[in-house]
Structures are given as C-alpha cells and as structure tokens.
Amino acid sequence: MRVFREDRWELVVGRLQAENFPDFLRAHWNSRHPFSRHSDLFKTIRSAVRTRQVAFQLLREIEEDLDTYLALSSPEPSDWSPEDKLLAATLKLFRVRQPFPLLLAARRAFAPADFTALLRATVVISMRFNVIGSYSTGEQERRYNEVTEHIATRQLTTLTGALQPLRSIYPDDSVFRSAFANKTIRTTDSCHFANYLA
Fold first, then answer.
1. Euclidean distance between CA atoms 174 and 2, whole angstroms
2. With contact defined as beta carbons under 8 Å apart, do 36 and 26 qualify?
3. Model-level pTM?
4. CA-CA distance, 126 to 102, in Å (whole number)?
5. CA 196: distance to chain centroid?
6. Distance from C-alpha of 156 to C-alpha of 57, rounded to nearest angstrom
7. For every one of its 198 residues, what pLDDT tens digit does the chain have, with 9 covering 90 and above?
8. How far apart are the first and last CA of the chain?
C-alpha cells in the first residue's frame, strides 16, 4: 500500500516537470482550504493530515486538480478549448498566478461556460491591476482567496456571485487610462504586450 502511494506521488511530481511542486501544492491547498502563506504551508498541511485516510484524500484531491493546474501553467498541450487555452496563455504571458487557487476551485464547481467567463475576468483584472497598474498584489491575493473559499464551501455557486466581490480589484476606466498613459513596458516584453493589446 505504501509503495502504491509513493508511486502516485512520483507520478504527480513527474507530471509537474519544470513546475515548482510547492507552488502547485499551495495553489491546490488554497483552492480547498483557508488561505495559507508559503512559509506556513507545510506546517498547515502536516497539522491537518494526521491519518492515512486524510492522506489518501489529499492525494486524490491533488490528482483531481493537477490537470487544471498544468493547463493554466502550460496551456498548449492541454485538452482545453481554444478560448480557454488562449486565456490561460495570456495569464502566463502576464506572469500572473494569483488567481490560480480561484480558478482551480471554479473548474471543479462551475459549468464550463462560467469557468471560461471567470478565466476571462481574471485576464482582464490582471491586465488592469498587475500589468498596467503594477499595484501591490497583497490585497488582490486576499480578495481572490476570499472568493475561492466561498466557492470551495459552496457559498458561491454562480458566476455573478463570484464576479461581484472581485470589483474591488478591478481598476475603473479613469484609473486604468491614467496608469496606461504613464506605463513603461520593458523592451523584452514589448512585442508580446503589443500583440496582446492589438
């Protein structure tokens, strides 16, 4: 039994390849549990996983979320729709991972069309908040995780219910225009962003 469990762990780690396992584990954990920081993650998991049954449940849940995480991190090989692949590729272009726990939770709970709409919303927020606004991500991460927890506990079951609380991290048009006018994009990123903005 122990060998079987270790083989399953090795499969998970092997499929992540270049991806950082702690990053995946944190996104997975935060998509199902109250928010945990990187520094507290392993202590939090260790205190929660005290029996064999809980350990196997954790492994099953990790396996359930792995394909979604991989599709967000490396969209091209995934079996997602062309639109979802494009949206995930845009998040990757922006180097934004704050919404990953939210998207893992939504992928499990929402209908495909609602998941796509939420993924699109995170791309728009990321463009305005992260790329152009360059605001501190602390408040953004807190807001994403509040919504994530409500989806995970089934307090939020609709796209509208998920989008409403995210309005506080959506810079309005006047703020966005001002930030855009003063934004300097590094030359190494300029072609990619120019293609996106076009």
1. 58
2. yes
3. 0.88
4. 13
5. 20
6. 23
7. 444 456 777 777 778 875 688 899 999 999 999 999 889 999 999 999 999 899 889 999 999 999 999 999 999 999 999 999 999 999 999 999 999 999 999 999 999 999 999 999 999 999 999 999 989 898 899 999 999 999 999 999 889 999 999 999 999 989 888 888 887 766 555 555 555 554
8. 55
